[in-house]
Amino acid sequence: MANVPQAKYRKDYQRPTHTITDINLTFHLDASVTQVTAVSSVKQQGDDNTLVLDGDNLVLKSVTVNGAEWEHYQESEGHLILTKLPDVFELSIVTTIDPLNNTALEGLYISDGAFCTQCEAEGFRRITYYLDRPDVLARFITTIIADKTRYPYLLSNGNMVEKGQTDDGKHWVTWKDPHPKPAYLFALVAGDFDVLRDQFTTRSGRDVALEIFVDKGNLERSHHAMVSLKNAMKWDEERFGLEYDLDIYMIVAVDFFNMGAMENKGLNVFNSKYVLANDQTATDSDYLGIESVIGHEYFHNWTGNRVTCRDWFQLSLKEGLTVFRDQEFSSDLGSRVVNRIHNVRIIRGPQFAEDASPMSHPIRPEKVIEMNNFYTLTVYEKGSEVIRMIHTLLGEENFQKGMRLYFERHDGTAATCEDFVSAMEDASGVDLAHFRHWYSQSGTPVLDVEGTYNDVEKTYTLKVKQQTNPTVDQPEKCALHIPLDVELYAPDGTIIPLQCNGKKIANVLNIKESEQVFVFDNVESKPVPSLLREFSAPVRLNFSYTDDELSFLIVNATNDFARWDAGQMLLAKHIRSNISRVEKGQDVIWPESIITAFKGVLTNDSLEAAFIAEMLTLPGLSEVFGWYEQIDIDYIDTVLTSLKKTLASELKEAFAQCYQALFLPEYTTDHGSIGKRALKNVCLLYLAYTEDGDALVNEQYRTSNNMTDTIAAMTAANHAELPCREPLMESYSEHWKHDGLVMDKWFILQGSSPSESALSVVKQCMNHDAFSMKNPNRIRSLIGSFMNQNPSQFHKKDGSGYRFALDILKQLNVSNPQVAARLIDPLLKFKHYDVARQELIRSVLEELHTMQGLAKDLYEKVSKALES
Ligand code: TRP
Ligand code: ZN
Predict the structure, then answer these.
(1) Cα(257)–Cα(269) distance, rounded to whole angstroms?
(2) Where are the alpha helices (DSSP H) in 513-632?
(3) What is the spatial distance between Cα 324 and Cα 345, in angstroms, rounded to a whole number?
(4) Which of these, 617, 463, 607, 455, lies nearest to 529 by C-alpha position?
(5) Tens digits of per-residue pLDDT, 245-281?
(6) What is the pTM of this model?
(7) What is the CA radius of gyration of the chain?
(8) Which atom of ligand 1 is least distant from the CA of 818?
(9) Is 450 known to be catalytic?
(10) Ligand 1 contact via 132 beta carbon (within 6 Å)
């Protein structure tokens, strides 16, 4: 690379040299030459009269200061440098940009003929020269001028204040946002849409207009999003005491979007995947995903917008907290235990994997080259776990006191993670000094716990050791403050109250040192401990349970999460031991304990269906990969498939009975029905491996009246490679080939097909009418699923999967580097694979590394991987 991209460090933060209090933007929209006029009120903050503005891909037309042309400026790579400026001035900058050729989908671009913007993290600099950093908060006034017939709706943040016509068939609208905001929250949308309108009255009695804009013809798919929005508004008032603060809340669904959705003030822009749903096009998990993302973006209005981030290193301040809030929203509306299980699967699978990869970073990173690379599972999901631990340590009441103090202190400003923790600490009186290391330390702590019972003293001793392995970014680790939620059970299943020195103690133990011992007294017989209940900290737990103890917990633990976790530990134990048997060339053996435990769960009428479905779902691939330093992809695949087949044949009758009993005549998305379908379809997944599999799957597909059951049938056919797979795939694509969003589910099945022809099918699919290399959803569905969910085919020993990936990455490096950088993740962990695969992947990474014009996004990841 000619110029090596430079990293920024958290420690180098400096206040901006100038503030911008107000900005007046005027857009003359045109597909390939849009003119942007930005008039800003600027004030110098210190004694530096040079102003360095950010800009990217802009054509500069003019610069004036206080109305007069300004000559003292210089354009350099990424910046406009203005010198000899007065203290206070009005700066006017005219630039032009080219939305039509903006395939990176950052800044102003065109999605299906409509203009839209994406400014987080640093996209506003692709619209005009500006102080594009989150600690510069300005009041925005935005005027949009465009052709009236093609762009009847002209939208921006805040309230509409004026509109009119021009002589040449154009119209214009002016929007005013009263809340000062950083540029990353700016949004503009112009196009023709169908609009779903509704209304919400806040608890203080203010009326808010709600509008959801979707592509023409999609109105009937937008109702669930509207219901979710109203639920979110109500929930935030009830649980957090937070009300909406503008007269209008708009959501626009677009097909071309790099991420899930964006919380722009008063004008959210959403990936259409998280808005559009009806029973024919969306699955139950799509419905739940929409509820959670609609909630997430809405909750950002307070945690993100009213209080924003001082700098991008503080991203988890808004994301970790907002994920925590959206998880609580979903849990309060639906099943708490099922939501917890889903979240924990993500932490134990892909987040732990990220912690162990070359991209390992603390939830508050120290060093960043490309900010887009840090919208990660660590910042979001582990960040939420850190907030959850604070919640556990403080309790709901003190936590809410902390939230109120946080808003009292920081509303309308740009804050830091430290500000948040201080508010929690000051409001509750709980000392979080040691706890703060969770913000600065990367990697996954390991807890090794041993239990010993003393029959004479009637005591039970837990010895807890913690240790965090060095990570690529951070060789030295310290002991963290880990809340460890514990319960002890007597052999008859009753709870043994926790006592130390005769005094009752709380269930949450505070682990702060590398080794700690807890002695519980008045324990009449040898107990079974339930450890890390509710997954009280994002750590790996080791405790050598016997099969009997785990089976006991599956039945007796008072808490559903703990029962599920015991089931997962039982599975993990035997998956591991079978992987080492296969390594030694021995046969796979599955013990009776697993079969009995699963049968018990499957036939237990008192359990919620959704919960049984989770109990019967094996740990994911990335979770199993994460148990090993050195991964043997082939052995893991062999063992997991063998386990599925064994459960299928041993429990065939029970699965079949359960399956038959769960048919629902009508499709409704209440949580009870969602749970029943989930269980029925888990049964089908196993039954697919029995001799009746093909007939059952085929029958379900033919008679299905909803997308959940349809996709479940196709998934079962795909994984078990049933004869009906081809006809079903054919029938589906015939029906849905005109709808990209619905075809994504089909592309995922093609990408994750275990068939030997998977790669050549993926290549053919790239010519499908519904596929486009310009659409991130399509790329992620087809190519992302191949690279992440298809270990046997992507990691083929002939290297064909890797060469294909290289080709795709080279293309995306030019058209959409942000998407390229997400796609490359499975290659970064190459050191964990066998030597032959390591070498194949290394050569791919090296070829990218030496490539001319490698974008920062890929450069950062590739160079870290090669240095590791
Ligand atoms: N702030 C968004 C969210 O979490 C994330 C986001 C949407 C984003 N689009 C983006 C981040 C583009 C980086 C780039 O809700
Ligand atoms: Zn967010």
Answers:
(1) 9
(2) 547-556, 560-583, 592-602, 609-615, 621-625
(3) 15
(4) 463
(5) 999 999 999 999 999 999 999 999 999 999 999 999 9
(6) 0.99
(7) 28
(8) 14
(9) no
(10) no
